[in-house]
Amino acid sequence: MLILLLLNYIQAKEIRKLKALFTYDQDKMVEDSKEYLMTMNEIQTIKKIRTQYYPIDLVQAKKIVDKANSIIKS
């Protein structure tokens, strides 16, 4: 059991390192979100952003869509 926990920890650490290697242009992501929000709702836009900019996580995608939504509404 201890070995599995250790392996899980090591794997999670490596995944975090790999995710850190991917960087995306935040402004481009907001622009894409604005375009998607014209035809989709927020949930569909978040899913689209996450698939287009993999490995972005749900919280980051939600923040980007919220930022795009606030720009549209203002």
Task: Summarize the helices and strands and which ones pair or pack.
Layout: H1 2-21, H2 26-39, H3 42-52, H4 58-73
Helix pairs in contact: 2-3, 2-4, 3-4
Q: Low-confidence stretches at least 5 residues in length (pLDDT < 50)?
A: none
Span between termini: 54 Å
Fraction of residues in H or I helices? over 70%
Main beta-sheet strand count, sense and barrel state: none
Q: How big a fraction of the residues is strand?
A: under 5%
Structural class: mainly alpha
Using the CA coordinates, give the radius of gyration: 16 Å
Number of domains: 1
What is the count of DSSP helices, taking H or I runs of 4+ residues? Answer: 4
**Anisotropy-based shape:** elongated
pLDDT averaged over residues: 92
Strand elements, count: 0
Order of helices and strands: HHHH
Question: Can you tell me about this structure?
Answer:
With 74 residues, the protein is mainly α. It has one domain (23-74). It is built from four helices and no strands. The protein has helices at 2-21, 26-39, 42-52, 58-73. Helix 2 (26-39) packs across helix 3 (42-52) and helix 3 packs across helix 4. The protein is elongated and about 50 Å long. The mean pLDDT is 92.
